Amino acid sequence: MLDQGQPAPRAYGQHLAPAPGSGPAACAPAAAGADAAQEGRTLDDFQLLRTLGTGTFGRVFLAQSKTTQRYYAMKVLRKSQVVKLKQVEHINNEKGILEVSRHPFIVQLTCTMQNERNLYMLMEYVPGGELFSHLRRAGRFPDDVARFYAAEIVMALDYLHTMKIIWRDTKPENILLDAAGHVKLTDFGFAKRVEERTWTLCGTPEYLAPEIIQSKGHGKAVDWWALGILIFEMLAGYPPFYDDNPFGIYEKILEGKLAFPGFFSPAAKDLIQRLLTADVGKRLGNLQGEGRDVKAHAWFAMIDWDALLARQVPAPIVPPHRHPGDTCNFDKYPEPPKEPAPEAGVDPYYHLFSTF
Predict the structure, then answer these.
(1) Quick one: DSSP state of residue 196?
(2) What is the homologous superfamily of the domain 28-125+326-351 according to CATH?
(3) Catalytic positions, please?
(4) Which of 125, 230, 235, 311 has its CA 20 to 30 A from that of 144?
(5) Is there a contact between 190 and 170 (Cβ–Cβ < 8 Å)?
(6) Among its keywords, does the record have Transferase (predicted)?
């Protein structure tokens, strides 16, 4: 995650920081965490096996409970960097939102911990890797594949919006696939509970809605705009507004000219055009409550929404994995050097993260 007002580069785990210390951070069970108590109560109860992703001030590790042998993803955030980059509010928002979110297509937070050096978020491990990786491997998705993933994302966005939460970080790097190939939204560093509008500039340049760029104030409609960008990218293999310079991207977004490849179906083109409508009042997803207008669109006509929510619809891509802790679907990263345990009692930042 970058400082407010800076564009976020497209890289996995961008909100994520150097290696954790070995202090006995206490585990605070999240409201949505079903089994935190039996997994262990301190950082020492978990073994960090390998890095799954890195970013500006954090790192995600594959972790294993020494008690139950279950695998988890441990997100480690360096406090000093979070404070330096003015991301305290975002990190606290992420923790608060994930601990109350219970949805089959949203990653589950089990518990949080902290010591004098780092913040720790223990989450379910999603072994299928990023949708981004599968999309790059395929080049582009056919209609039925893109439609399946878009539909599951629609249901997750619906859920968040009913709780007055906007995600604000839609992109294939932040969508994981579980062992069966179903989506799991992850990385809620930009998510925020909003009654009507907020004004923070954040997100990934290619996915920003016009109202964010223009600092007009924005609400849940930005997630529907980003969905349109994502559907385009899944079908084409590239986003509709691209430039080597973020400000060039912003200019193209504000200009709003869409160039569709010839193989796009008429229904897909219509859906994308109606999602990528600059006028928030006319944008699909913002016309009826709970995204009903999006679900009712012709491109989604064959979707059984109830069966989808129940995970009864087979996924078009089932990621290969040999065992629950297999990391074959994630890139390999150099492991950080081991650090000495943080100095006990010296923590100038504790009051900023008192809920961890």
Answers:
(1) S
(2) Phosphorylase Kinase; domain 1 (3.30.200.20)
(3) 169
(4) 125
(5) no
(6) yes
Pairwise CA distance, residues 44 & 65, whole Å: 9
Q: Mean pLDDT across the chain, nearest whole number?
A: 89
What kind and span of H or E run contains 93? helix 88-100
More confident residue, 286 or 121: 121
* Amino acid residing at 224: W
Neighbour count for residue 338 (Cβ, 10 Å): 9
* Angle (CA) 3 121 325, round 5°: 120
Closest CA to 220 of 209, 234, 230: 209
Extents of the domains making up the chain: 28-125+326-351, 131-309
Whose structure tokens read 């799954």? 52
Compute the distance between CA of residue 242 and CA of residue 252 in angstroms, rounded to an integer.
8
Q: What superfamily in CATH does domain 131-309 come from?
A: Transferase(Phosphotransferase) domain 1 (1.10.510.10)
Strand-pairing partners, residue 68, are none
Q: From CA 15, how far away is CA 187, in angstroms rounded?
A: 7
- Predicted model pTM: 0.89
